[in-house]
Specification:
The chain is of the alpha/beta class. The strands form three sheets. A six-stranded antiparallel β-sheet has the order 2-1-4-5-6-7, with helices on one face. The chain has a six-stranded mixed β-sheet with strand order 8-12-13-3-14-15, sandwiched between helices. A three-stranded antiparallel β-sheet has the order 9-10-11. Helices cover 57% and strands 19% of the residues. Helix 6 runs antiparallel to helix 11 and helix 12 packs across helix 14. The protein is built from 18 helices and 15 strands. It has a domain of 201 residues: 3-Layer(aba) Sandwich (Rossmann fold), CATH 3.40.50.300. A hairpin with a 2-residue loop joins strand 1 and strand 2.
């Protein structure tokens, strides 16, 4: 259920906080006090669109926070499947509205607007002021039935959807395969060329990876050998360090018989020459350890170039090219025996169509069975809502085309007067009647859905008198199993509130702001009296309000 609503800097709202209760929460107030703004803020918190004008004047941002308590294990598991984990069985939805963008969070973690809406759909159902007008469009009627019967029809409906896309795929393949002789010859020529090109390459799975590793080694070996040769040139070849050392030794050798220091230096130089000779031998052996062949290098390089060329045309990996090759061969077989191929596609299309027809017929049969039960429940709900002599049913037609939803076209039909024929709901119902039909539907659907909180924004449109009392009774029925939050102008509905909130508009420091207050018993009676008598609240009006409050609890 929705435990708490916190709103800041939206329209006439400076900052308010509401602690909602279980059962029926009623919001009342004068026209223009800001009732719809409060429920509109809930809509915004759940991912609804907004314009920058909704942010309070001179404020940098608007903020809406909703705190939900989760006591349904099914909903908790569905949230966890979306990587949303309730903390102490609570979910906090937060949306900060800025000019041109918004920031959404769930339990403090930033989420995108799509995730916010998905989570919201599990927790709350909002019926806006004009949502009953959706009943004017017959395309919505089948959606309502399918939502009601989802437990019974979901499996067969999925089969219909799968069969439909298989049917469309068969249609597409057939359409793409129809060609004249010239087109067929052009495709044959291209197929044969590409097949030949891949076959000539004689590719082996994993060959490219082995060659690339070998090529890296060769490239590095080549660089190492080049540097070894350069070092040997400086140390071992003529005019290199070894040759110069020999000249130096000969020069010093002429003085060894005359000077002991010269002899010692000459001996040191001879040791250096010996070390350098050893170094040159090791350097030569090191070069020989790289068994590098220019011919092998060029062969490897050319093979890699060939494979990379084929990759640029047919796939990023050799496995992709070989898969593409298999497809070419299959296509070549099809084109080579074109007539048999087209015949095969037509047979597949015919089989797909029969399968789709079969599942669509099964879905339609099941829908009609569930529609009869659904319509009877709606009929009973309408009787409870003061339709004294009403008939209600759902009529079906078969569409002249297939869809992912089968071949059903369904529409609600109603008769509200004795002896009157049934007519499409959208063509005969008034605004008040549509509101009551929608309420009857919501009542029936409430027993089928897990959504814990239902919000009604002025469900009482176009009704009064006894009918208003009947609507109040129906709201009370829903509130037995769901939390209900409702805006109303009717005292009959406000009287049955489990929690009654009054919304008022006040002038504070030269600007207007909306406030909300939870009413106690006496305050609720006073608010009912205002709704009954307007400005003229007499003792009789107050007594009527007390009686209305008393009778609502029976």
């Amino acid at each position: 259920m929705l435990q708490n609503l916190h709103v800041k800097n939206l329209a006439l709202i400076d900052e308010i906080e509401i602690d909602f209760q279980t059962g029926l929460n009623i919001l009342t107030g004068e026209t223009g006090a800001g009732k719809s703004i409060i429920l509109g803020s809930v809509f915004l918190a759940l991912g609804g669109r907004y314009s920058k004008d909704i942010i309070r004047k001179n404020a940098d941002f608007g903020l809406v926070e909703l705190l939900f308590s989760i006591d349904n294990p099914v909903i908790e598991e569905e949230l966890k499947a979306m990587d949303i984990f309730p903390e102490n069985h609570q979910i906090l939805l937060n949306r900060k509205l800025l000019e041109g963008r918004s920031i959404s969070r769930i339990n403090g973690e930033t989420v995108n607007i799509s995730t916010l809406r998905d989570v919201a759909s599990l927790l709350i159902d909002i019926h806006g002021q004009h949502d009953h007008e959706s009943l004017l469009h017959s395309k919505n009627h089948l959606v309502i039935l399918d939502n009601y019967a989802k437990d019974k029809i979901s499996d067969i409906r999925q089969l219909v959807t799968d069969a439909f896309f298989e049917y469309k795929d068969c249609q597409k393949r057939l359409a793409e395969s129809v060609m004249d002789e010239a087109e067929k010859q052009r495709e044959l020529s291209l197929l044969q060329y590409e097949i030949h090109e891949i076959e000539e390459a004689d590719l082996k799975a994993g060959e490219d990876e082995q060659l690339e590793e070998q090529y890296r080694k060769m490239t590095n070996g080549r660089k190492i050998c080049e540097n070894i040769r350069e070092a040997y040139q400086y140390t071992g070849e003529s005019d290199g360090a070894g040759d110069l050392l020999s000249r130096a030794i000969r020069a010093l050798g002429t003085i060894t018989d005359f000077d002991d220091n010269g002899k010692e230096l000459c001996e040191q130089l001879i040791e250096v020459d010996s070390l350098l000779n050893d170094f040159n031998r090791e350097l030569s052996d090191y070069e020989k350890s790289f068994d590098f062949s220019e011919e092998d290098f060029h062969e490897t390089e050319e093979r890699l170039n060939q494979i990379n060329y084929l990759k640029s045309k047919y796939g990023n990996q050799i496995d992709d090219i070989l898969t593409y090759y298999d497809g070419l061969c299959s296509r070549l077989e099809e084109i080579a025996d074109y007539d048999a191929f087209i015949k095969k596609l037509n047979i597949e299309l015919d089989n797909a169509k029969k399968q789709l027809e079969k599942y669509s017929a099964q879905l339609s049969k099941l829908r009609k069975k569930e529609a009869a039960v659904f319509a009877e429940k709606i009929h009973q709900g309408l009787v409870d809502l003061n339709f004294l002599d009403v008939r209600f049913e759902m009529q079906f037609k078969k569409t002249d085309h297939f869809s992912a939803n089968g071949t059903d076209q369904a529409e609600f039909y109603i008769s509200t007067n004795p002896g009157e024929d049934l007519h499409p709901l959208g063509s005969v119902a008034s605004g008040g009647e549509l509101s009551r039909v929608m309420l009857a539907i919501k009542t029936v659907m409430a027993d089928k859905e897990d959504t814990p909180t239902l919000i009604f924004d002025e469900i009482d449109t176009g009704i009064s008198g006894i009918t208003a009392g009947k609507v109040a009774g129906q709201m009370a029925v829903i509130a037995r199993s769901h939390q209900v939050i409702c805006i109303t102008h009717l005292p009959q509905i406000a009287a049955i509130a489990d929690a009654h909130f009054s919304i008022k508009k006040n002038a504070v420091d030269s600007h207007t702001q909306t406030g909300i207050q939870l009413l106690d018993q006496n305050q609720s009676v006073a608010e009912l009296a205002r709704m009954i008598g307007g400005e003229s609240i007499t003792d009789a009006v107050l007594q009527s309000a007390r009686e209305m409050k008393f009778l609502s609890k029976k």
